[in-house]
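Can't paste images in this forum, so I'm doing it all in text. The chain is below; anyone willing to post the predicted structure tokens underneath?
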Amino acid sequence: MKKARICLLGLVLFCSACAAPSLRYKKEMGRLIAANKYQEADEKLLSQRNKYYSYKDKTLYHLDRAILFFEAGDAQTTDQLFSEAQTEIESSVKSVSGEIGRLLINDLTTPYYAPAYEQALTYYYRAMNFSRAGNVSAAAVEARRAVFFLDHLRGQKKQGYNDEPFVQYFASLVFESVGQRSDARIARANALSAYRRLGAKLNVTAPDFPVPANASELGEIIFIHSVGLMPLKRNTTFQVAWDRALVLASSAAEGDTVAPEVQNAINAGLAGNAVTLAFPEFVSVPYRVKSSSLEIGGQIVYTQKVADLAAAAKLDLDEKMPGILFRTATRAVSRAVASKQLQNLVSRSSDNDAFDQILGMIISGLNASLEKADTRQWFTLPAELRMARVFVLPGFRDVRLLLRDGYGNIVEERVFKNVRVKRGGRMYVHFRTAY
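Text version of the structure:
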């Protein structure tokens, strides 16, 4: 019995160490981002590092911080953090112990593996970081890494999210900026193909930016407007009948296997009223600014939505949900079997009915505390990206940005003074609103 108590205590302590950033923490960070208080947001993130970012979450830690420095305009720290995140992503190897823990404890026992859309965005942000600093050669390196990654993704995955149209489109612009016309044509073709294939699922259509006949005599401003905040993952639980849990636990998704305990439960005909399952779901974060337009030298150009990152995140979760439900059901069934066996063992060695009841309550509470959904995500991202391509006469230009609500009403304006535009060149400008 002493060994049993030690094991129970060990499981409780292990469970408490498996924590994801809370919904409250994410919302507080979102409010700081909306107020453009990026230094304060970074200080808060650092103060919560030991609580929400364990050794398993190095990738997520670097990604969440990188956006803060990107928005603050610290190009050097931004690139350092994104470089570290990419290194973590590329060196990630699934551990046997982590996979076992995922089937026995919860999905938080494994390291954070950035989904494909997040990986693609790391290349965009590094390329944009270099581009707006005027280092298009370094941006081209990231653009090439992006298209290589996406080519590999299409080769691995034939259906679902297997490309990122906006990243392909942005890569084509960068290739054009350094004179790599052939690469630009290929990336642009891949972008348009991805918009056609995935546009409905990603809630976006291919952008249409007219290029004037005399474009070579003009300069161009590439303006990116990052809008809103990502929907936030939260832990959700629900109860299902025992037979439904067995069905879910017996329906292995790709890459998973049915646990022996599940087959034992089926063979034994173990009965119960219901079991509790946990899974992540998204909660939308409201924001007022929905679109924007630019006024430059008398012309008005509206930004177009080129990427819906919220839709990409939801599509990724939808594709993973069968595996999530399989694992949570498998854990519920396995624990129920183990709990029943433990209670039967204790009952045979003890005549104390009260102790049996207390033990049952402890086991039920432990099972409930162990089951947590994996709510980790790159939550400092915007909800969507909008773009405008504006061709103007060379020189120093004032750019007036008009921010609009969901009805098209102007709610605020900003002015970028003396934006230098070179003949035949491009100037990359970024702006974010999260309110």
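The CA atoms of residues 53 and 61 lie 6 Å apart. The beta strands are 219-227, 232-241, 274-283, 291-296, 299-302, 304-308, 384-392, 395-404, 410-421, 426-433.
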